[in-house]
Amino acid sequence: MSNSRTLPVPDGLDGMRVDSGLAKLLGLSRSNAAALAESGEVLVDGAPAGKSDRLTAGALLDVTLPEPAQPVPVAAVPVAGLRVLHADEHIIVVDKPVGVAVHPSPGWTGPTVIGGLAAAGYRISTSGAAERQGVVHRLDAATTGVMVVATSEHAYTVLKRAFAQRTVDKLYHALVQGHPDPSVGTIDAPIDRHPRHDYRFAVVATGKPSVTHYEVAEAFRAASLLDVHLETGRTHQIRVHFSAMRHPCVGDLTYGADPVLAKRLDMSRQWLHARTLRFAHPEDGRTVEYTSEYPDDLAHALEVLRAES
């Protein structure tokens, strides 16, 4: 099944490649937009358009889109290392281990927070898409730490609004290469998908506003431990922002980290941890705060650095 969209090319996309312009216009990934063009599903003024053709403002764009994929079912499978820090009738706060996605998605075959909670007998809010019901924010699969899931419809609504309005205090700890200068600062740089690598994100002039506040908490010879407060919550935000500053998270080979340093510290993923989450409880508005301790691999890396300093 498929559906068709017909719309004029806006002035802002004039001169842009078909795949890039289509991705921006319809919210697709660039690779998916290119695949549509290559399969003949994109017409410009009635003529098939190649992925690298250029768009002209005012031209009529016809795109045949596939029907959305069916939701990925939630498998109730126990997750080793997933700890519940707090649970009540409105929220569940968990300490997420490494290698665990928040919810099912196409192509992911590993464990999920939602599946682990279902296996443990917890009821999750039914708000949200079927595979991510109750999810009000996310952590990367390779990022550890504290996160909250809604277990009531009221909590889902309140928490989604709180995250959207940036009233949730999200403190991360990040170990980055080198020594950021200044030692206390703010990175205000828009983020969008990488123009060439679809699985990555990057600082892009036309991206979404993204703001990261940081302060050096401890300095070592080769790296710095940072307190990081997110004002916004873009995908890979901390990783992208510090990579753009040439201080990538230690172990984050996707975003330019030094593989030699990563090996020396036994890091097989980015050193990034959701340390503390502070928010107004959706039931009565009281301030609650939950903290996650470092997992063994992150703690070991710090021990090695302290021993060398």
Automatic annotation (TrEMBL):
Signal peptide: none annotated. InterPro entries: PsdUridine_synth_cat_dom_sf, PsdUridine_synth_RluA-like_CS, PsdUridine_synth_RluC/D, PsdUridine_synth_RsuA/RluA, RluA_PseudoU_synthase, S4_RNA-bd, S4_RNA-bd_sf. PROSITE patterns: PSI_RLU, S4. GO terms for biological process: enzyme-directed rRNA pseudouridine synthesis. One of its GO terms (molecular function) is pseudouridine synthase activity. Residues 90-244 form the Pseudouridine synthase RsuA/RluA-like domain. The keyword RNA-binding applies. Residues 16-59 form the RNA-binding S4 domain. The keyword RNA-binding applies. It catalyses: a uridine in RNA = a pseudouridine in RNA. Responsible for synthesis of pseudouridine from uracil. Belongs to the pseudouridine synthase RluA family. This is Pseudouridine synthase. It comes from Tamaricihabitans halophyticus. The lineage of its organism: Bacteria, Bacillati, Actinomycetota, Actinomycetes, Pseudonocardiales.
